[in-house]
């Protein structure tokens, strides 16, 4: 296989990102202007593939598109400070920790409700009562 440029299908395959998402990321400005053939087909370089992998890995770690745009900008800026990158990562880590804590609370509540429900032929159900707000004071 050649060293590029590649069409969108090959760029998608090499980066692990769908062609639809490649177009989306390009539309968001996460990729620099992609070269085109005379007939208008996109041509992706090795640097574009590398950026797509960077974006994919960032998405896999749950960063938002705004955070990814900022990270891509910092990645390409050789005069960046690692403090700027760490600030974004720390903020995201704190958000993840909060979401995990929230999900653990939901798990405890739901586990308690499932334990309290007899799951038999009776109509009484603490799960439905809780969902309906019957167990709380208005």
Overview of this protein structure:
With 138 residues, this protein is mainly α. It has 2 domains: 64 residues, Multidrug-efflux Transporter Regulator, Chain: A, Domain 2, CATH 1.10.1660; 58 residues. Helices cover 62% and strands 3% of the residues. A two-stranded antiparallel ribbon has the order 1-2. Helix 1 crosses helix 2. The protein is elongated. The model has no long low-confidence stretch (mean pLDDT 92).
Low-pLDDT residue spans: none
Q: Based on the coordinates given, report the CATH architecture of the largest domain.
A: Orthogonal Bundle
State the domain count: 2
Query: Structural class, please?
Result: mainly alpha
Mean pLDDT over all positions: 92
* Named CATH topology of the largest domain: Multidrug-efflux Transporter Regulator, Chain: A, Domain 2
- In one word, what is the shape? elongated
Largest sheet geometry: 2 strands, antiparallel
CATH class category of the largest domain: Mainly Alpha
Number of helices: 6
Terminal Cα span: 68 Å
